[in-house]
Each structure stands twice: as structure tokens, then as C-alpha cells.
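Lecture 7 notes. Example A: sequence first, then its C-alpha cells.
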Amino acid sequence: MKVNIKKISELSGFSVATVSNALSNKRGVNKDTAEKIIKIARENGYIKDEKIKRIKMVTYRDSGEVFTESPFFSTLLDSIEAESRRSGYDVSIVNLYRHHSDFEDNVRELLNDTTSA
């Protein structure tokens, strides 16, 4: 049986949120608690599912422009992408234009993308 965060939570007696935060090295988890959780995870063969490390940002346009040629929006997108990658996430930025002929194909492709969570 594959060991998941819920199982580690049951084995450790800590909440699912605490286990998730400890395994992701997030702040706010007591050092001793994190060490106990990580030890239990290792002993039970926990393998982190890396496929959930992908973020998709979708902008949907019914009419008009959401992002313009303004430096603000390009800087915003660059910052989102850079910080996400620094945190270990893959980022896909997708623009959907409601009135384009390939809108439905683009949505279908986005929904069927097996590389995402």
C-alpha cells in the first residue's frame, strides 16, 4: 500500500495539515514535531508526489484585454513565475480567448494535460 500524508497523519497523531507542512519544510512546524513526522515518513516508505508541483495560471478573456503591453503585467507574471520556480513549482501560463476559433480545443488540451496535478 502506498503511504500518503493521511496515513502518516494517522501514524504520527498529528493533523494532515501539520504533516503536509512538515514534509514540505514549511515554517510554523515545531522542529521536534517535524523530525518525528519525517522519521515516520521515511520508515514507512513515503515518496513525495512531485506531479502536484505544477501550477497553471489561466487568464480567460471574454472581451477586451486582461494583460496589456504595460510593464506592470509583464513584471507581475515574471515575478509569479520566478517565485514559483524558486519554490520548486513548474509554471504554465495559458491565455484563453473566448471568441477565437480554437477556444474549445485549447480548453480541451488544458484539461487533458497529464503533466499537471
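Example B, a different protein, same format:
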Amino acid sequence: MIFDAGKNVNVSHVIHDLSFGPKYPGIHNPLDETSRILHDASGTFKYYIKIVPTEYRYISKEVLPTNQFSVTEYFSPITSQFDRTWPAVYFLYDLSPITVTIKEERRSFLHFITRLCAVLGGTFAVTGMLDRWMYRLVEAATKPKNKK
């Protein structure tokens, strides 16, 4: 009977922001603005979080030590009065032994020139093909038909 009371507990929740250190440009934390609303059931939410230490290196050589993470979510509903689990929300985490380094880098002027030449060459090739096709189309349309 005591375990039957767990069916009446609502474990609905909203996670506005979850991070493990300062945020760097472009980071997306997978649990930010997450909501789990239960209407007619109760159960146990488990979030398995894998935390990876991260160094973000700015162009200015400043280093920002932080962490990023991935998450797997699991929900186990309470199905009967004999279920001996209590409704709860668990955050289970594991720290990775490997550090990820993210560097901001400026592309060189030579890289810019190479990309510009590639775009111009591609444009030249496509316009050449279009010109050739249009010429053949006009030639075929205006060609006199031989009647014997």
C-alpha cells in the first residue's frame, strides 16, 4: 500500500539551462529549454550525461576551460501497485578522460584567393555549357529540313 502512493506524484519538470562550465561561441547544450510534462502517469526519469572536458582557444590565444556533454534520456513508468520504484528525476553523469580542444582560426589570404578562383572557374564553366546548349538548340530549331 505504501508504494501505491507513488502513482500520485507528478514528476513533470522543465530544464531551463544545464551546463558544466562557461559557454563558448556556438555551443548547444542538449537539455536547455527541455520540458517533460506528465498528464496521467508517473514514473522515473533518468538522464545519462556524458561530460567531455573542453578547451576553447580564441584567436587571441585566450583559453576558456569548460565542458560539453551529450545526454541519453530514459523514462520508466510506474505500471502497477506492486512496482517498488519511487517517482523521481535522476541525473547520472560520467566524466570522459579525454579533453577536446576547439580552436578559432583565421583562414589565410591564399585560401580566400583559391576559393574565389574556384567560384569564378565554376561560373565560367557553367556559362560556357549553357552557351553551347543554347547555340545547339537555336541551330536545331532554325535548321532547314531536307524533304525528298
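Note on Example B: The mean pLDDT is 88. Residues 107-143 form one domain.
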